[in-house]
Amino acid sequence: MSETTGLRDRARRAMRAEVAVVALELFAEKGFDGATVDDIARAAGMSRTSFFRYFPTKEDVVLGHLDDLGQTIARALADRPEAEDPWDALRSAFRTAYANSKNAPGPALGRMLLDTPSLKARHQEKQSRWQDLLIPEIAVRLGVPDDPRDPRPRALAAAALGCLDAAFQAWTATGGEASTSTFIDRAFDVVATRR
């Protein structure tokens, strides 16, 4: 990567972060549905067209960081010991990714995500992409790396993401009183005891 490209990427990330801060302030003031893209663009000192250069949708202002988080979880899973049980490796990967994430949503943002249908739908879309990122590593761990007919890798990824959703909802409901890892463990434990 050239120095110019690196500088451009950093400037783009900085602008995205700045617009996100402005948008989150507006969402706190007006609610997600009450703040329009035009409101966000105006408050950020840019045009509507410029806004869409940084974010494909209004929902991505809130959820854009989840693309990176999905990649982080996939890397954390790949870094787990090869002989580790796939379910335990998934649990550890989620715990590691959330513990190390500077972008994981806080309880207030979590509440908005859970209470806003369009955000919830976009979140589901992103988690579907996470599932696709996790399946190849799970398949390798199950000894079926090139067999798309085997449902087990997809089932494990879907179950793990279901546990993550349950953990996130419980964590949000408590206002973030305990670490996300505590709730991740509780959710994964209940499924592990049923295997």
How would you characterize the overall build of this protein?
Helix content is 75%, strand content 0%. By secondary structure, it is an all-alpha fold. Helix 6 crosses helix 9 (152-173) and helix 7 packs across helix 9. The longest helix is centred in the N-terminal third of the chain and has 28 residues, at 3-30. Residues 13-73 form the HTH tetR-type domain. Keywords: DNA-binding, Transcription, Transcription regulation. This is TetR/AcrR family transcriptional regulator. It comes from Umezawaea endophytica.
Gist of the model:
The chain is 75% helix and 0% strand. The chain is an all-alpha fold and 195 residues long. It holds the Pfam family TetR_C_14.
List the helices and strands and how they pair.
Elements: H1 3-30, H2 37-44, H3 48-54, H4 59-63, H5 65-78, H6 86-100, H7 107-115, H8 117-142, H9 152-173, H10 180-192
InterPro entries: Homeodomain-like_sf, HTH-type_TetR-like_transc_reg, HTH_TetR, MftR_C
Domain HTH tetR-type: 13-73
DNA-binding region: 36-55
Task: Identify the notable features of this structure and list them briefly.
195 residues; 10 helices; 0% strand; mainly alpha
